[in-house]
Amino acid sequence: MFTEKHLxxxxxxxxxxxxxxxxxxxxxxFIVSExxxxxxESTALEEKLLHGQKTILVAEVQKIxxxxxxxxxxxxxxxxxxxxxxxxxxxxxxxxxxxxxxxSKGLREVQRELLLTLSSLHVSGHRGYYFVFNAEGxxxxxxxxxxxxxxxxxxxLRALLAENGxxxxxxxxxxxxxxxxxxxxGWYVGSAExxxxxxxxxxxxxxxxxxxxxxxxxxxxWIHNTTHTLLAHPFRQExxxxxxxxxxxxxxxxxxxxxxxxxxxxxxxxGSFVEYDWQKPHATVATKKISYVALYAPxxxxxxxxxxxxxxxxxxxxxKEEMKAKMDRYIAGVIIIALFSMLAVGFxxxxxxxxxxxxxxxxxxxxxxxxxxxxxxxxxxxSKVAKALEESKQKDKALLQxxxxxxxxxxxxxxxxxxxxxLSEVSAIFMELESASKFGKASRExxxxxxxxxxxxxxxxxxxxxxFRHFFKPSKDKERFLIHEACQEALSLSSALxxxxxxxxxxxxxxxxxxxxxxxxxxxxxxxxxINAKEALQSRKTLTPSIMLEATRTREGRTxxxxxxxxxxxxxxxxxxxxxxxxxxxTTSGSGLGLYMSKMIIEQNMGGKLSVTNTNEGACxxxxx
Length: 625
Prior knowledge:
Elements: H1 7-101, H2 107-119, E1 128-133, E2 139-141, H3 152-161, E3 166-169, E4 175-182, E5 187-194, H4 195-211, E6 221-225, E7 230-232, H5 255-265, E8 272-279, E9 286-296, E10 301-308, H6 309-438, H7 444-471, E11 479-482, H8 483-500, E12 504-509, E13 514-517, H9 519-539, E14 546-553, E15 559-565, H10 572-575, H11 594-605, E16 609-614, E17 619-624
Parallel strand pairs: 12-14
Antiparallel strand pairs: 1-2, 1-5, 3-4, 4-5, 6-7, 6-10, 8-9, 9-10, 11-13, 14-15, 15-17, 16-17
Helix pairs in contact: 1-2, 1-4, 1-6, 6-7, 6-8, 8-9, 9-11
C-alpha cells in the first residue's frame, strides 16, 4: 500500500517503467509487423520478378515475330519490284520491235519474233517465268508442255482489274504475278514468281538468325513446327529437322507436345506460359524452367524461349537479404532511440520528483492552515444551516397559508354562487305563503307543501357545504381513482359560477381513465384551472366565451386532461415564469399562488407534469399523469 512518503519514488519510477514497457510493446509489435511485411514484400517481390521475367520472354518472342514480319514484307516488296522490272523490260522490248519492223514486216511477224525471244528468257534460278495473253484471253506463253498454266489465267485477269497490276494465286504452286498491256501488239504480258521457293529461302535465313540469338545469362530461342519437328535450337543441332514429339523433360512430360498444344490453344496468338524441368546449357542437372511459346501463324511455327527459376530465386534471395538487413537496421535504430528515451525520461522524472517534493511540502503547510480554518467554519455551519432551514420552512408555511386563504376566498365565492338560486327559491316560497295568509288562502296542505319544498332547498344548501368541506379536505394516502369522477367534482362546484358568467362548457372525458394519486388535490387543480379560464374570459370580455375540458390517453399510456379557452392566450411577458410564486396574469385580484401550488401537486406529489401552450384561440393547460 503506497503512502504519501512513497509518492516521490512512485513518480520517479512510474514514467521509466511505462516508457520501458511501452518501448518493449512497440518494439515487439514493430518486429512482428516488419516480419509480416517482409513476408508480404517477399511474396510481392517474387511475383514482380517473375512477372518481369515473363514480360521479357513475351517481349523477346514478339521482337522475333516483328523481325519475321519485317523480312516477309521486304521479301514481298522485292518480289513485286523484280516482277515489275521484268515486265517493263518486256513491254519496252515489244514496243521497240514493233517500231523497228512496223514498216518492213507485218504484225504477225513481229509477234512471232517477240514470242521466240521471250521463250528463250528464263528467270534466275528458275524462280519464275514469263507469260503472254492475246486479246481473246488465249495463253500464248508459256507452252503447255514447258510451263505452269494452272490458275494463271484467273490470276492474270485479277491482276488486270487491280489498280497496281498485281495478283496472287494459290492454285497449283503459290505464285505472285504482275501483268501489263502491250498496246502495239494487242497483247497482255507478265511475269510470275513462285512464292514457296522465296519463302523457303527466307525461312532458312530466319532459322539461322534465330539460332544466334542470346539474352540474359542463359536465354536462347528455339522453333518447332506444328507437327513437332525441331527447326531451330542452338544447343541441339544434332536433332534439328527431326521429330521431337516424344521428347520428355526430367519428370517424363512430353514437353514439345505441350508447347504445340499451348500455342495452338492460345487466343489472339498471344501465346502461353509452360513450366517444366530442363537442364541448362552445358549442365546435366535439370531445374525448374518457365517458357513462353507462341504460334507464328503464317508459317505454322511454334517459337519458344524461357528462363530458369533458380536464376530468379537467386535474385529473390538477394533482394530478401537486402530487405532483412534494412529491417535489422530499423530495429537497432528503434532500440537505441528507446534507450535514449528511457534515459531522458529518467532524468526528467528525477527533476520533476524534486519539484513535486517541494510542492507537496508547501501544500502540506497550506492544507494544515486550511484545515484549521475549516474546523472553525464547521463549528458555526450547523447553526447557519438550521437557521436557513427554519427560514425556508417559514417561507413555505407563509406560501401555504396564502394559498389556503386564496382557496377560502374562492370557496366562499363558489358557495355564494351555489346558494344564490336556492335562497331565491326559499324567498319565493315565503312570499307566496305571506300572500296566501293575507288573503286567507293559506291552507294546511299548502303550508305543508311549502315547508316540504323549503326543506329540500335547505338540505341542498347543507349538502353543498358538505361537498365543499370534503372537496378541500386533503387526501392522506395515494389511491387509484377515475379521472372522470375527479373532473365531475370540480365541475359540480364550478358549474353555477360558469353558468352565471354565461360561459359555455364542453366536456369530453373517457370514462375508463384511471390513475394513482390524491383525488381531492387532483380535483382542486382542475377546479383552479377552470376558475382561471373563467376569469380570463371575463377580464377580456370575450363575445362567445367557452371552455373545453377533454381527457384522453397518450401514446405512452399516460392520462392527459386538457383545459382550453378562447380568451386569446397568455401574455408572452409572463409566459416563461407563469408557474413561479407571486406571478399572476390578473391585474388586481390574483395572488400568483394558484398555478404554483397546482404544479407542486401534480409534479412533486403525483409525479406528473403540468404544462401550458398558446393555441390559435387561447391558452391550453395539460395535466399529464
